[in-house]
Amino acid sequence: MISKSLFGNRLKEKRKFLGLTQAQAAEKAGIERETWGKYERGVFMPSGDVLLSFLNMGIDVSSLFAAEQGIRPSENSEISKEESELLGYYRQASDNGKFVILSVAKGAEKKAAENTQVLATHKTA
Q1: Which parts of the sequence belong to the HTH cro/C1-type domain (predicted)?
Q2: pLDDT tens-digit readout, 84-104
Q3: What SS3 class is residue 91?
Q4: Is the dihedral of CA 106, 111, 116, 117 positive or negative?
């Protein structure tokens, strides 16, 4: 699991990249400035609702967690409105609901791959 201090450092980098003060970022996230500061200092970790507000601000939340694993996300990587909405549904879902969401996503990817193969076959025929 990622350390709170590493998460906080990454969050601070993202806030500065967006050109926001702690107060401005906290207001956009719907939290107190002091709470934002505690996230950056590694005192607290944000809840799922707060992470969702980070997404809505344009912060790539996965990069906050992925940094410790050596993954270097692009500073310009953003999550679309649809991706944010899907993530919100996933986080609110029960374990069964999460399983269904993942199954549908995997099935859609498999179906898209099959359709691509069919189209390629028809083009060469």
Answers
A1: 11-64
A2: 778 777 788 788 877 888 888
A3: helix
A4: positive
